[in-house]
Structure formats: C-alpha cells, structure tokens
Amino acid sequence: MEGPSATEASSQRSGEDTEAAKGDHRRPIDSAPPFPFPAGPLLSAGNFFTLFMTSAYAVEMARKVLLKCGLSNWTVNVVDEFPEHPKRFGLCSQRNRTITLAAKHLVNDREAWETIYHEVAHALTPDDIEHGAEWFRTFRRIAFGI
C-alpha cells in the first residue's frame, strides 16, 4: 500500500503550518508573571524570558505595574525609538504622567520588564531623577519585592 502522494503530503504539511501560523506563539497577557517579578534576580538567566515582547503586551504589563503601585492616573505609550536618543529604552514624564517605552528595545521580557520597573521607579520618586538612593530602593522594591 502506498502512502500519500507528494502533493497530498505537501498540502497536509502546509495545512499544519497554516494552523500553527494562525496562533500567536507569544505568551498571552493573562499569563503574565506575578508581581513583583518572579523570585530570583531580575537579570538572572534562569528566569523565563521570551525572545520577543509585543508592544501591546509591554503596555499592558506596564499598566498593571502602575496600578499595583497606586499610579492609576498614569498612561503608557510606545514609540519606535527616541530620535534624539536612539539608545534610550524608556522615558518617564512627571509633567504628563506618562511612561514611554521604545519598541526597538522591547526585544525580550528581561529588557522590557527592567525598563518598565525602571520608569515606574522614576514615577514614584520624582525628586530623585539621578538614580540616587531613594530611586534605587524603590526600584528594588518594585522589581524584587525587597
């Protein structure tokens, strides 16, 4: 007995590929990591970082962190990059109560979470813009729960 013809086998494979391509393989928003960041250092290679974080996912996660920190009147935006500062990952505007993330740097969970926590720490410490002791304590509390 012969197996499927090359054409049938090809259409079966392409059908499977099509089904896989239809789904979004990135982690859905409702399976976000718990707050604060999972146990262990934020920068630990052992954490469950994905290779890519969508802008929409990053905005949703940043909103959740802002709400958890009592900053419900803040907004989150994503821009492709900051033209005047292409290496900038994020920006916190106290005046506009806005956190802006650079999409080009949202390449994985690690960088996105670090940027979100970094900018939220700025939102919570408006008088410490130079990453001083108050900002650092706030960042550690948000990112590590300590």
Descriptive notes:
40% of the residues lie in helices and 10% in strands. The protein contains four helices and three strands. It has a three-stranded mixed β-sheet with strand order 1-3-2, covered by helices on one side. Helix 2 (55-68) packs parallel to helix 3 and helix 3 (109-124) crosses helix 4 (133-144). The radius of gyration is 20 Å and the shape is globular.
In short:
40% of the residues lie in helices and 10% in strands. By secondary structure, the protein is mainly alpha-helical. A hairpin with a 4-residue loop joins strand 2 and strand 3.
Keywords summarizing the entry:
146 residues; mainly alpha; Zincin-like
How confident is the prediction overall: mean pLDDT?
74
> Based on the structure given, which CATH architecture of the domain at 53-146 is correct?
2-Layer Sandwich
Largest sheet: 3 strands, mixed
Widest β-sheet, arrangement of strands: 1-3-2
Low-confidence stretches: 1-51
Basic shape: globular
SSE layout:
Blueprint (H helix, E strand, L loop, with lengths): L5 H17 L32 H14 L6 E5 L10 E4 L4 E5 L6 H16 L8 H12 L2
Parallel strand pairs: 1-3
Antiparallel strand pairs: 2-3
Helix pairs in contact: 2-3, 3-4
